[in-house]
Amino acid sequence: MTTAEPTTDIHDGVSRTITEDIPAHFTVKIEGFSLLSKASIERYETAEFEAGGYKWKLSLYPNGNKTKNEKDHLSLYLAIADTKTIPHGWEVNVIFRLCLLDQIRDNYLMVQDSRERGRRFHGMKIEWGFDQFISLKSFMDASNGYLIGDTCVFGAEVFVCKERSTGKGECLTMIKDTIATKHIWRIENFSKLDKECHDSKIFIIGDQQWKVQLYPKGKGSGMGNCLSLYLALADPNTLPPGRRFYVEFVLRLMDQLHNKHVYGKASQWFSTSSQEHGWSRFILLSQLYIGFLMKDICIVEVEINVIGTVITLP
């Protein structure tokens, strides 16, 4: 008994072959296809299957992929599944073939990219396939054997030909519609503060612990004649490597007599290597006595708005 040689047609970079070989890695049988195409299911995803050491799944658009403006063809794609378990930076070059059974002639229409080096799957591109896998007209034509008794069978072969790691990465997430949060620090017995730096109690804003640092006799260029004021991460050593926060903040020294508050406003990145930001010359010490220090009490208000975070990708 002899086996017929596969016949191949290549058009627009897509190879279509008729073969008697059964798909090596996965098949899915769909009964009642017309009900699927009439339902509100734009995309059907199969269960996961394993090939080449990775998990995959098929994504079928029975009426065409509308996001690609496709309506006259059935669309079929291969997607890498469970991407959370794959380290960031990994790339997988894959030669894959997607198949459709001709139930009359007992052979398969095998569709693949004509690129010999295959397609590159990675964190930013987890799916490849064919917007125009087969025209709906050809698929529905019973004489072609693809849809018989409202039943069809699709399949896949996946061959990993190269994989590599591209190194480190990070993800910046900007936070939409954030709301600034305020915290008040009331400092009593100001004249008796004897440490170089005094910390407020720790408070939590934006899922992060913060504190305000006050230098009653100044710091750096403000030493001896200014009050210095800073916003700081309360426990930066607990941050995961690479974690950063982009923060809009206001430090305000309250004028308890005239309501003419003194404030500093800034936008800064906070991280383990940049734990505090503020002003060494926030206010002259001589100015404290015109309403900012009353009954040996001064009041600091901090306003924090975390508008962006960066994490290191695994």
TrEMBL record:
SUPFAM superfamilies per UniProt: TRAF domain-like
PROSITE patterns: MATH (PS50144)
Segments crossing the lipid bilayer: none
MATH domain sequence ranges: 23-158, 180-304
InterPro entries assigned: MATH/TRAF_dom (IPR002083), TRAF-like (IPR008974)
Organism superkingdom: Eukaryota
Protein name listed in UniProt: MATH domain-containing protein
Organism expressing this protein natively: Protea cynaroides
